[in-house]
Write a structure and sequence with these properties.
The complex is a heterodimer of chains A (314) and B (429). By secondary structure, chain A is α/β, with parallel strands linked by helices. Chain A is built from ten helices and nine strands. In chain B, the strands form three sheets. In chain B, strands 1, 2, 3, 4, 5, 16, 17, 18 and 19 form a nine-stranded mixed beta sheet that branches. In chain B, strands 6-7-8-9-10-13-14-15 form an eight-stranded parallel beta sheet. A two-stranded parallel ribbon of chain B has the order 11-12. The chains are: A alpha/beta (314), B alpha/beta (429). The structure holds zinc ion (2 copies).
Chain lengths: 314, 429
């Protein structure tokens, strides 16, 4: 029996397939709750979850907050005043303070890669990584997989193309790890300046040409391009990026007819993705938001309460 | 004052000597090396049978953090750490607060060393004022005060024209330039080796090519000017190759490597523990293996620690925010014996050479040799002693080390400076 009770979710690297399948299975049940009229469960009654976001993120934080509340947990939003960069309280001390309040799980978003590992070494509660620098964003990876499975009925054997800034992308890494574990054929495409050498060692195929990459693609996962990257050696301009790697309606024909387009948001429409794609029948971008809440409910429930299933009648 | 070190296996690279013999010390100097030597009093005899007796170990790349950073280390704690590790002489780097870039600072430091140091301390002066890479430091005046070399360690001397002038100027005083070779632009924002592991962790890397380019430039400048250059903590395959080729051409280039670059790979960084963070970074296995090869074939001249203590709170941060570097003086002998000697990669003669004799030669010191008339600085090794590294027991103020909790075979059993024991059985006297 698979059971992830008490386990932190620092990333998807090394997470076994059965655990991912368990989360996706339970998330499906959670989604039924989210879609129903009565969303409030009491599965995590008496438990408390703290959201610690050193980096602003309305989406992810909101999604975790809803997830915890739907499960009946108490949610504390703790916004650390100063990160340790700003001569505030040290990271360790902040974690110890929060832990002393008696929380069961800490959901954290931090600018520095590896912060969740550091946190896990410092304190006892379950650590859920909500994004650490360019390292991982495991719940985003899970929700992308959930969406793929929901639309395509499977993940194994699908060709998934991740487009954009892989080097600075935590979403990319979590997708790669999760999708590889689930048996997908993962391809990366983007400007060579944003695709480090030796990425193939992660078991992926690397392209610098969008048309070539999209051939026979089942899924396109479009990453957000940070406008700060333009003009400093990564690529000359957002316009040039769009002309080379932008996902446009007429380019979808390079992929399979029923290609699914994902985007973790927030989107830069007109740069990495054009509006006509976002609102087309190929896009599941809106659905991803609801799936995000469902997957996070599953993660919180399974790590705090354990078990290999959930009874949503409670 | 006499001391007779009796019956030890003397390893003396300067004379290619490897034999059981006695060493008679009088008034801080070696009086005689031979068999069946006797002392006047029985209490003056140290039984070294079963142990190895080597010329005092030297570590030419150490940060004692003085002046100005006594929270990290002091002359006292740093030299106690050296003694504990069996190192009888260190050279301390000038990236201090203020930077060691003038005679008066050297003078003040010498005064402190005289009062506090447990082992011999050499001073390395800065190449540039404030280590800013723009104006020459007071090299002549510092040379007069006895600095042994010049370095802007901590970072690379970016400006090639400035570096050329520094090499030419320093050569007038027969002092070498030691360079930390990593191109600033290529490493910007990076905190670990760029490669498979940094990709997987999403960390900005410090590519090997940054070191390759820097080392190549220094070699060509040394060749063009005919002056010596010493490559600090070499860590890449191409850099080792460049030094190898340059030596064949007769360029006056020497190089050092640290035990950590010979032993660890970047796989260790997967846990994001700051005790593995240093510059240049711990690299992948091809680079590690190339460093080992360079040590074995003589391309690399010296093994140094780059002992770089930091306060606990500084290292107790997220990986990217923590300072680079960690301590090494109390683990280098154990690490080298365990991972390079007992594994059969290098022999004892090589190990003693790279940790003593060769370093004395690079710095132009009258040391690293066991011979009548020389200062009686000796490092005595117990090759088979098994022990576990426990950083909480370090004499150094720095407690961060990748070697913590590792089991070593082999340790410095005693250290003698000017004929006096400064350490016996790990205890600093
Ligand atoms: Zn350095
Ligand atoms: Zn250094």
């Amino acid at each position: 029996m698979v059971n992830i009770q008490g386990k932190s979710l620092l990333g998807l690297q090394g997470v076994p397939r059965e655990e991912i399948e368990l989360i996706l299975r339970v998330a499906k049940k959670m989604k039924a709750v989210v879609k129903s009229d009565n969303k409030k469960l009491s599965l995590l009654k008496g438990k408390s979850v703290v959201n610690m976001f050193w980096e602003p993120s309305t989406r992810t934080r909101g999604s975790f907050e809803m997830a915890a509340k739907y499960l009946g947990a108490d949610v504390i939003n703790f916004t650390p005043r100063g990160s340790s960069i700003q001569k505030g309280e040290s990271f360790r001390d902040t974690l110890l303070t929060v832990t002393a309040m008696g929380v069961d799980a800490i959901v954290m978003r931090q600018k520095q890669e590896g912060s969740p590992s550091f946190a896990q070494r410092c304190v006892d509660p379950i650590i859920i990584n909500a994004g650490d620098g360019a390292h991982e964003h495991p719940t985003q990876g899970l929700l992308d997989m959930f969406t793929i499975q929901e639309v395509k009925g499977r993940i194994e054997g699908l060709k998934v193309v991740i487009v954009g800034d892989i080097d600075h992308g935590r979403v990319a890494r979590s997708n790669i790890y999760g999708l590889k574990t689930m048996g997908a054929d993962v391809h990366l495409v983007g400007p060579r300046t944003l695709l480090q050498p030796e990425l193939e060692a992660m078991g992926v195929t690397v392209h610098y040409d969008l048309k070539e990459a999209l051939k026979d693609a089942d899924v396109i996962n479009v990453l957000r391009i940070q406008k700060e990257r333009q003009g400093i050696g990564f690529f000359p301009s957002a316009g040039e990026y769009n002309s080379l790697f932008g996902i446009k309606k007429d380019r979808l024909k390079w992929a399979k007819d029923d290609v699914l387009v994902l985007h973790p948001g927030p989107m830069n429409r007109g740069i990495e993705i054009d509006s006509d794609v976002c609102y087309s029948e190929h896009s599941s971008i809106q659905e991803q938001v609801m799936n995000g809440v469902s997957v996070r409910m599953a993660v919180l429930y399974l790590t705090i309460m354990g078990g290999d299933d959930v009874d949503i009648t409670r | 004052m006499t001391l007779l070190v009796k019956g030890g296996r003397v390893i003396n690279p300067a004379m290619q000597q490897d034999e059981i013999c006695d060493i008679l010390i009088e008034n801080g100097k070696i009086k005689e090396v031979g068999v069946n030597l006797t002392a006047d009093n029985a209490e003056d005899v140290f039984d070294a049978s079963g142990l190895v007796v080597a010329p005092g170990f030297i570590d030419m790349h150490v940060h004692l953090r003085q002046p100005g950073q006594s929270g990290k280390e002091t002359i006292e704690t740093g030299t106690k750490a050296a003694a504990a590790g069996g190192i009888t002489r260190v050279a301390t780097m000038p990236n201090t607060k203020p930077v060691i870039d003038s005679a008066i600072i050297v003078d003040g430091l010498k005064y402190k060393i005289e009062r506090e140091a447990k082992v011999k301390v050499e001073i390395i002066g800065a190449i540039s004022k404030g280590q800013k890479g723009q104006e020459l430091s007071a090299m002549g005046a510092m040379a007069k005060e006895g600095v042994v070399a010049f370095s802007d360690d901590g970072h690379y001397v970016e400006n090639s024209d400035f570096m050329r002038k520094a090499m030419e100027y320093a050569s007038m005083f027969h002092k070498i330039i030691i360079d930390h070779c990593e191109d600033d632009n290529l490493i910007e924002g990076g905190n670990m080796h760029e490669g498979v592991v940094s990709n997987e962790l999403g960390m900005k890397g410090r590519p090997a090519v940054a070191e390759d380019i820097a080392v190549a430039r220094d070699i060509f400048l040394a060749e063009a000017t005919g002056t010596p250059v010493h490559i600090a903590h070499i860590s890449t395959k191409n850099a080792v190759d460049l030094v190898r080729q340059a030596k064949k051409r007769g360029v006056k280039v020497t190089a050092e490597v640290t035990p950590q670059h010979l032993i660890f790979t970047d796989e260790a960084l997967r846990t994001f523990e700051t005790r593995y963070k240093m510059n240049p970074p711990i690299r992948s296995d091809i680079h590690r293996d190339a460093c080992v090869e360079g040590l074995v074939d003589g391309t690399i001249d010296a093994v140094v620690t780059d002992h770089a203590p930091h306060e606990w709170e500084e290292k107790d941060q997220e990986f990217n925010l923590a300072p680079s570097g960690f301590v090494g003086l109390e683990t280098s002998v154990g690490a080298m014996l365990t991972h390079l000697y007992h594994t059969g990669i290098i022999d004892l003669m090589t190990m003693v050479n790279v940790m003593s004799t060769a370093q004395a030669k690079i710095l132009g010191l009258d040391a690293g040799v066991i011979a009548p008339g020389k200062d009686a600085d000796l490092t005595i090794l117990d090759l088979d002693k098994e022990w576990t590294v426990d950083s909480s027991k370090f004499y150094s103020k720095g407690k961060s080390t990748p070697f913590d909790e590792m089991i070593f075979k082999g340790k410095a059993a005693a250290a003698i400076v000017n004929g006096k024991f400064v350490m016996k059985n790990g205890e600093v006297l």
